[in-house]
């Protein structure tokens, strides 16, 4: 190794020592401020992450509820189309002369058809609302008229023109009723 090389190494070492001594002084306050800024950024990112997760979970839950409602109440239209058939079977039963022997078999057949129809609807959570003699409930009944009747309490259903129906507890069709009122 020549003297020049030796001197170059010494000069480099001296230069490195000088640069190390001239390095900017890092203050504790500066580091604490930087730490506080990073901690705030971390907390903000953490909060945003939690909000995003909660929002995704809420969206998933809403979608599941919508699917459940679609399964439950997707039958609304077809059930509403079938209810007049039940009404017609009931009208047919009410018009048949039960005392005439010729109509006994027909009445029995219509009764069995009506019963099987009602049972099939009940299996799909379609429940009949027949409020005869019950207090009037505007959530389930539609009052066609009010008639003075001293024999029963006011707001009592005294006649049912058309039965109502619910599907999974939600009203499909209100019962059309006559309500008593005070004389």
TrEMBL record:
<dbReference type="Pfam" id="PF01025">
    <property type="entry name" value="GrpE"/>
</dbReference>
<feature type="region of interest" description="Disordered">
    <location>
        <begin position="1"/>
        <end position="25"/>
    </location>
</feature>
<feature type="compositionally biased region" description="Polar residues">
    <location>
        <begin position="1"/>
        <end position="10"/>
    </location>
</feature>
<feature type="coiled-coil region">
    <location>
        <begin position="28"/>
        <end position="66"/>
    </location>
</feature>
<keyword id="KW-0346">Stress response</keyword>
<comment type="subunit">
    <text>Homodimer.</text>
</comment>
<comment type="function">
    <text>Participates actively in the response to hyperosmotic and heat shock by preventing the aggregation of stress-denatured proteins, in association with DnaK and GrpE. It is the nucleotide exchange factor for DnaK and may function as a thermosensor. Unfolded proteins bind initially to DnaJ; upon interaction with the DnaJ-bound protein, DnaK hydrolyzes its bound ATP, resulting in the formation of a stable complex. GrpE releases ADP from DnaK; ATP binding to DnaK triggers the release of the substrate protein, thus completing the reaction cycle.</text>
</comment>
<keyword id="KW-0143">Chaperone</keyword>
<keyword id="KW-0175">Coiled coil</keyword>
<keyword id="KW-0963">Cytoplasm</keyword>
<dbReference type="InterPro" id="IPR009012">
    <property type="entry name" value="GrpE_head"/>
</dbReference>
<protein>
    <recommendedName>
        <fullName>Protein GrpE</fullName>
    </recommendedName>
</protein>
<dbReference type="InterPro" id="IPR000740">
    <property type="entry name" value="GrpE"/>
</dbReference>
<comment type="similarity">
    <text>Belongs to the GrpE family.</text>
</comment>
<dbReference type="InterPro" id="IPR013805">
    <property type="entry name" value="GrpE_CC"/>
</dbReference>
